[in-house]
Amino acid sequence: MIKVITIYWSGYGHTKCLAEAVHGGVSGVGGVEAHLLDAENHGEPDKLDMFDDADAIIFGTPTYMGGPAAAFKKFMDAAGQKWLSQAWKDKIAGGFTNSGSLSGDKQGTLQALIVNALQHGMIWVGQAEMPENNERIESPGPDAVNRFGAFMGVMSKSNSAGGGPSEGDLKTGRLYGKRVAEVTLKFRG
To answer: Is 138 exposed, middle or buried (0-12, 13-18, 19+ CB in 10 A)?
Structure first.
């Protein structure tokens, strides 16, 4: 049995909804022990050892000002102690983000998560779903899978005035969690 941890931080609950979708995708794959952790409660230096026996870690954070939220960056910085010993080397990694605007420079957040994973010697798994309804003149609707055409990881949009990610974004998250779990099984198999 492989172990996949999804660790996230959520300021308003929107990224938590996406994290739950990603976790749901992971949980649906046989032979996988799936864990969903909030960085608020599990990101302290004395709690990082729990990640050492994971086969994959999926990182999730809102995009604030074009990068990871400070609360998630705190987790990333604390994990620097794991970098020194290369404790996360050769683990599978993935990531997702959410913001209140269509762009919000979410790509910058995914790039930061990728660089963090690569610094640890991890192996990054991208999002592989083709954008649905991409041939339309107007942009794909909120129920479309991978409506942002992101391949580094999952991008999601939540209405700043309320409401979480759309059903299409949540489905993209579930498919991504499933993909990361399946790739981990193949890699560890």
So the answer is: exposed
User: What 3-state DSSP class applies to 57?
Assistant: strand
Segment (H or E) for 15: helix 14-27
DSSP string, 101-126: SS-TTHHHHHHHHHHHHHHTT-EE--
List Cβ<8 Å contacts ≥24 apart for 125-131.
Answer: 125/56, 125/92, 125/93, 125/94, 125/179, 125/180, 125/183, 126/94, 126/151, 126/152, 126/153, 127/151, 127/152, 127/153, 127/154, 127/172, 127/176, 127/179, 128/179, 129/172, 129/175, 129/176
| pLDDT, tens only, 47-77 | 999 999 999 999 999 999 999 999 999 999 9
Contact in structure between 128 and 179 (CB atoms under 8 Å):
yes
The per-residue pLDDT for range 89-137, each reduced to its tens digit, is 999 999 999 998 888 899 999 999 999 999 999 999 999 999 986 666 5
Does residue 138 sit in helix, strand or coil? coil
**pTM value > 0.85:** yes
